[in-house]
Write a structure and sequence with these properties.
Layout (H helix, E strand, L loop, with lengths): L1 H45 L25 H10 L21 H7 L3 H13 L1 H6 L4 E2 L4 E5 L5 H8 L5 E3 L15 H7 L2 E2 L4 E5 L9 H8 L4 E6 L2 H15 L6 H5 E3 L4 E2 L4 H4 L3 H9 L7 E5 H6 L1 H11 L11 E4 L4 E4 L24 H22 L7
Parallel strand pairs: 2-5, 2-6, 3-5, 6-9
Antiparallel strand pairs: 1-4, 7-8, 10-11
Helix pairs in contact: 12-15
Amino acid sequence: GSRLMENSLLCSRLYVISISSVKKKLILLLIMLLLWAYTLYSCMGYCATMPSPIMDSNRDKESQGTGRRTDASEVEILPRLLPRPQGWEDLETDYEESSPRTYSRDLLNNEDWDDAKSEQSAADLSALSSFSNGSGSKKLPQAIIIGVKKGGTRALLEFLRVHPDIRAVGAEPHFFDRNYNNGLDWYRDLMPKTLEGQITMEKTPSYFVTREAPARIYAMSRDTKVIVVVRDPVTRAISDYTQTLSKKPDIPSFESLTFKNRTTGLIDTSWSAIQIGIYAKHLENWLQYFPMGQILFVSGERLISDPAGELGKVQDFLGLKRIITDKHFYFNQTKGFPCLKKAEGSSKPHCLGKTKGRTHPNIDREVVQRLRDFYRPFNMKFYQMTGHNFGWD
Ligand SMILES: Nc1ncnc2c1ncn2[C@@H]1O[C@H](COP(=O)(O)OS(=O)(=O)O)[C@@H](OP(=O)(O)O)[C@H]1O
């Protein structure tokens, strides 16, 4: 009898032990499952937009402006026409500054549009991509690259996009010049989604020479940080002309367009290629609204000779940790320019496309000299205003 009792006691103890070990295993399994699900969730949702603990002091300060939405159908179709926010788009500013056109047509006219469009399809169809696109919210930009055309604005934006705390729209929105009537909601909708602490950016090089742009950006938010990539105005003019020539091979020579009257040597300052380079004049317009401390001047020349050095200054200006360093760049001998070892959202090295770093035509030395003389006083004024000698003279 007592043995029978002992046996049944042993059995029930064993039963209890096995029950609790199964329970433990189950709980462990559940915890692992939860951990795994959490890791998966945070990776899909956050990896692409992971912020660092450094916060931008300007975030959430954006204020609403007075812009109104006009064409509803256009507003709806545009986000679909926009290239994927991730990836390397080598878009180029348009050569006709004055012609008012719609945003969608700007994109369609762009020679790099086809590349951007084909790049878009594969990634956007994947579930992972749409999941990661779901996190955060769209905000108005806290920092804008406002110019100058042919200064190196695309290189700067693509380099900045490597920073985990910067999210930028790939195409040029042209909001503060051509599309202002579409309103701030339209503009905000073009922006990529950001998380707390991330900075939204865009670049449109024509803003620097747009009379209304400073007041309009100020109306959006007086705290907006503006960045200007400046380049020797003579080389900039030739670069501008080279771009136009590549699209319209029949235009007159650079030399003949430079002068109002070749014999008197009177320079045609109404030609945009020349006008854009009078930096001091355009800057005066911006200083009516923004203090010097809110404007950063990046040297287009140094952006090529020392990209990490220039990027260091930009990251400081934006209140970001210096994450982009010389380790991110290599000099591509074939391209003749610095390139990224890894482009944003990719593990492959990447240089800008063939529309960046074109071969310039040879320009008559006397004409170049005449232009140097023309720009010198404006350059001096610009150095004085910015407190920085860019070494063009
Ligand atoms: N890393 C790198 N790779 C290629 N090109 C570079 C780079 N950094 C600066 N640049 C210079 O950028 C010039 C084009 O300037 P933008 O991008 O501002 O042009 S645009 O206004 O958007 O059309 C372009 O002008 P061009 O050389 O006249 O083609 C380049 O000199």
